[in-house]
Each structure stands twice: as structure tokens, then as C-alpha cells.
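Usage example:
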Amino acid sequence: MNGFKGIGSPRLLGMLLGVAAVSATPALAHHSFAMFDNTRSITIHGKVTTYQWTNPHGYLEIDAEQAGGETRHYTLEMTSINMLSRGGWTSRTVKAGDEVTAIVAPLRDGRDGGLLLELVLPSGKHMLPGVPNAQNYKRTP
Amino acid sequence: MASKVLLFGASLALLAAPVAAEPDLTGSWERYPLPGETPDPRWAPGPIPDPPLKPEYKAPWEENQAKLRSRLAESQPAGDNYVQCIPDGMPAMMQGMFPMEIFQRPEQVNITQEAFNQTRRVYMGETLPKWDEVDPMFYGRSVGRWEGDTLVIETIGIKEHVQFRWAPHSEEMKITERLTLLAPNILRNEIKIEDPYLAEPWTYSYTYRRMPGYKLLEYVCEDNRDYVDENGQHRLRLQGE
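Running the assembly step on the lines above writes:
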């Protein structure tokens, strides 16, 4: 090895001090790519039929109770199981038959499905699935 | 004779001299700062400039940027590749969404991004082939060398559709990375992209922070129910569909 040391620190320091605020992006009229509606949420309550521990997303299938005793089936997409795992979820956090309450950003196309924003377990514990930029999903009654 | 003895003595002295050890980058790293985290200004990477594309490539790129910005504003996947379970490839995987592992040996350095199990292999001390001597791939062909404390990696052979920030490039694109520890647990990656599509090299940097004890998780796209329909709309396949 030669005697080189350091990494040209004056230049590096210059780069580090050169950090600038990222300019705000202008709002643009556009065709939305989003499949989930982030302007409202729905809350469903019912029995889990499947809790699927897979990538690129985990899935939670729920038979949601309706007025009059009927049920409607919902497919809920979760984040990547890697995110869930780092957030304290495991493949055994929920199981088929569990009665849960789910707060969901619904599908824009109106079908029975959505993005899971929060889950209340039978124990009463609230679980957050670590949705990126969760603050951008509006919770509505 | 005397000079030979001197030479012999000099080589002995070289052997005996303490060898400046290259830094060991082995371990798990996360992007720094994490989304929402206020970074230490000493380590924060600067904003990534727009690619200095030649005029003929600039206009279509700008159109796509409007689309990209709107997707990011809605927290949507930046690229269709994620919806289709296609990995980032180079250089985007060096700032992938999940932690990254560096596994360093004197003759080879492997870098794995947890998302999509993306692994690139850097062969130390080898010569970089010319761009048309390798088949274009996602991670390309990488060779590495140490310049003092800095690990310099050169990469060639990236498919044209494997893009960072949707910047078009040719199969001649060359990526040069300079990895240096700013502190024992802070790693800087200075990236330079050279390509005939660019008016000048595109340079930017990433920072990583060590994640002591973190073990990378596996990632297999086992059941992808997301897709982009014929109208370009992101959709979800429901159970039974």
C-alpha cells in the first residue's frame, strides 16, 4: 500500500456544505396512476379468511360484516413483508378466523379491495403496516 | 552487487512495513438519511442534479419527469418496473428501498440490495472490458480497485431500459463509484455516469449508515397481484381473479 490517506477533504467538505433545499414540485394536472384512493378511508370489521405472507406484498383477505348479517369479501394489499417484518409483524401476527378491524384506503375502481393502513387485532392491539408516506393517505370517518 | 543488496534490503523493508489495511465495508447498510429523518449536515448527500442530457434526449426526458413527479407526489411506485416485480439494476439499486449488504474479500466484493435480492459482484484488480465485449444486463460487469482508502468500482454493460430516474442511456454507459468511509459507520458513494447521451458526466452521491447486527431478509416476488392495464393504470387483481 502507498501512503495515501484521506479523501480530499476540502472538496468533500465543500460538497457537504453545498446541500440545498429541494425545491417544491409544482402540482400538475395529470392522469392518476394511483390505484388506491388516498382522499378517503373505509373501516371494515370481520373475519380473516387468509393472511398471506408473500412479496412483493402481503395480503389480508377479510369477510367483512355488513348491515343485515351479510358479508362482503375484501382483498387488502399490505406493504412488502420485509417492511412488515422490520415493523414488528410476523407471519403469525394474524391468522384465519381472527376477528379484526381494518382501516383501508379503498380501490379507486370501486371493487372490494384496498390498501391496509391500520389493523386492530383481536387483542385490541393496533398494528401499522408501514405504508410509505402514510401521512399522504387521508383518514375519513 | 551493492545495488542488488540494496534492492533486496529495500524489498525486505517493504515487506516489514505495516500494511495500511483497506477499510472493511462488510456489513449491512441503510440509506442515509432515511425518509423523514433530519440528516447530520456533515453526512447528508446533496440533491441529485438532473442528468445533463444532450438536447435531443432532454425533451422526452422532461415529459417523463412530470409523470414521475406526479407519481411521487401520490406516493405511487416511481417506475413500472416495481409494479412488474422487475429489480432496479444499476445504478438505482445503490439507493434501493431496503437495506444493503456489502460482503468484502480481497479478490471480490459483493453488494446485495435486499429488495428483489439484487446482487452485483465486483471483481478486484480485473480490467474493465469494453462495452461491446459484454452482454448488457441489470447489474453489468464491475471491476474494483483501492485508491488509498477509497474503493473505486467501474461498471459497464447495463441494458438500455434499466434506467435511473428514467434517464435514457446507451449500451456504452459507464458508471464509476468511489466509496469512502466518512466516519466508521458512515459510507459515501460518489457516482459518475458517462455516456454518449450526456453532454458531460452526471455526478451525484449517496450516503449509507451501518446497521450493526442487521441481517438481510430474503425477497422473492412470489405472488404479484399488481399490474398496469392497457390504459396505463395501476391495478390490483383480487382474490379469485
